[in-house]
Amino acid sequence: MKYLLLITLTFFCSYAFSQTPEEGLRTAWFTQNGTARTNAVGGAIGSLGGDLTAANINPAGLGMYKTSEFVLSLGALKNNNSFDFRGTTSNNDKGIFRYGPMGFVIGSPTSSNKKSGSIAFSLSVNQLASYNNRLTFSGYNNYSSFSEQFIEELTRDNADTNAALSNYIFGSTLAFRTYLVDTLNDAAGKFVGYKSLVPITSGVNQYCDAITKGGYHEIAIGVAGSERNKWYYGGSLIIPLVSYQRILDYSEYDATNNTNNKFGYFKFNETLKSFGVGLGLKLGTIYRPNENVRLGLAFHTPQFIGFKDRIRASMTTNTENLKGTLSETSNALNDNNPGERSYTITTPYRAIASASYFFSNSENVKQQRGFISTDVEFVNYRGVRFSKTNEYGESVKGYYKTLNNTIKEIYKGNINVKVGGEIKFYPIAVRLGAAYYGSPYQDETIKADRFVLTGGLGYRAKGMFIDLSFSQAVVNEVQFPYRLNDVANTYAVQTGNTQTVMMTVGFKL
Q1: Would 464 be classed as within a structural domain?
Q2: What phi, psi does 481 have (nearest 5°)?
Q3: C-alpha distance from residue 40 to each of 24, 429, 466, 498, 500 (Å)
C-alpha cells in the first residue's frame, strides 16, 4: 500500500519530536455539527439562512434575521467502534456530552419598509468536531513491530550510542535504555548499527489502546445584510480553538513459549496534550430569484492555527535472561518536564454551493409549508500545511517541507454532499436529511468515508422555539498503530457508527 514516509527529526534538543499528517487531518475531516434544526436536515442549510449555524457555514444566511434571537444547543454523542486488526476483531463504545451553536443574533430592517433589506450581527460559539473516543484493537503480527520505527530513526540519523542514550527521550532513547533496541556488531565486534530484540519472524501479540479527548471549537463573529430581500451578503470572523489529548498504551508480547529468546514483552505509554488558537474568515452570498428558490455560495478561507503541544512518554521492556525487566521515562531524563513543541497548521479551504426550494414562501411562519435543500461542499484536504518559526534553522524548514510534500502525496480534495427537508404542520415541523463525506485519502485501498442519516422535530410559537434532532453516522476509517519506511504499513480497519442527539432552545429578544 502506498502511503506516507515515516518522517522524524531531532531538533538538536530534547524537547522536540515528530509530527504526522493525521494531526492536520483532525482539523479538516469531520461531519457537520450545528443546531438541532441544522443537524436534522443533514447540515444542508447553506442557502436557507435564519439559523445561528449560518455563521459557521454561509454567513449570508444571518441577513435573513429581522429580529433578535438567543440560542442554546446541548446534546450527547456516542461512538460505537469495531476494529479488525490482522484478523482479530474488537469492539468498544464511548458516550460523551457535546454542544452545538450557542449565542445570539441581533437583526433589524434597514428601514420601515421591511422589504427594503435588513442587517444583522451575531456572536456564537460552536463545537465543530468532538475528539472524545476510544480506539482499542489487538492482533497477532509476524510481519512488523512497533520497535522498528526506532531502528529506522537511529539508522537514518547515523546516531552513535551516545546519541541513542540521550537525544530521543520520547521514543528511541527509551527503547535503547531498556534494551528493546540493542547494538548490532559485526564479526569483529565493531559497532555497525542497531537491532530490535522483538522476535518478529516467530510473531508477537500486539495491543493498542488510545483514549482521546477534546474538540474543535469556533468562535464566530458574523455580520450580514440584504438588499430588497433578493441578495444576502455576509461574513464571519472565525477564531478556532482546538484542544486535543491522547493517552496511548501500546504493547507487544512474545507469541511463543520460548523463555530464552531475550524478549518477553514491552509496554510503551505516551501522553499528549495539544492546544491551538487561530484566525480565519467565512464569506458567503445567497440569491433569491423568486419566492420559492434560494441559491447560495460560500467560501471558507484556510485557518491559521498556532499550536503548543506537551508530551510525556515511558517504556518498560522485559528481555528475560538478558537484562530482566527495565523501565525508563522521559520525566526522568528531562527533569520531570514534558517535551514541548510550537508550530502552525494551515487548514484546507472549503467551497460550498447550495440550493433550496420552498413549497410556499411567506414571511408569516403560519403559512410556510416546508422546503427541500442541498449543499455540495469541496474540501481541499491536501492543502493542510505545517510551518514553524526559524528558531531551529534550515534543517527544521527542510523537515516541514518534507512533511507537507507527504501530505500532498497521501491526501486529496473531495466532495461532501448534504440533502435535507422539512414539512410544517404549524406549530410543529418534521425534518429529515442525509449526508455523505468522501474519503480524504488518495490511496483507494483505504476505505474511509462517512454516511449520515438524520431526523428531528421542531416546535415554534409565541416568540420561542424548541428543536430536537437525532443523527446516526456510519463510519469507515483506518487506524495505524505505527508507520515504517521499508515495509508496507499495517493498520486496523475501523467500522462502526456514531449517534448524536441535539436539543436547541431559542428565544426572541
Answers
A1: yes
A2: -70, -25
A3: 28, 11, 13, 15, 10
Taking the CB of residue 325, how many other CB atoms lie within 10 A of it? 13
Q: Report the number of distinct structural domains present in the chain.
A: 1
Confidence of residue 1 (pLDDT cuts 50, 70, 90): very low
Q: What is the pLDDT of residue 426?
A: 84
Which triple of cell numbers denotes residue 468? 430536537
Helices (H) and strands (E) in the chain, counts: 7, 22
Residue 66 has pLDDT above 50, yes or no: yes
* Cα dihedral 85, 86, 90, 93 in deg (nearest 10): 10
DSSP one-letter code for 16: -
Return the top range by mean pLDDT from 17-31, 105-119, 183-197: 183-197
Q: Which range marks the domain in which residue 392 is found?
A: 21-138+201-508
Residue 75 belongs to some domain of the structure: yes
**pLDDT at residue 75, rounded to an integer:** 96
Q: Which of 476, 491, 489, 447 is nearest to 86 (CA)?
A: 491
Alpha carbons 430 and 371: distance in angstroms, whole number: 11
**Is residue 53 situated within a structural domain?**
yes
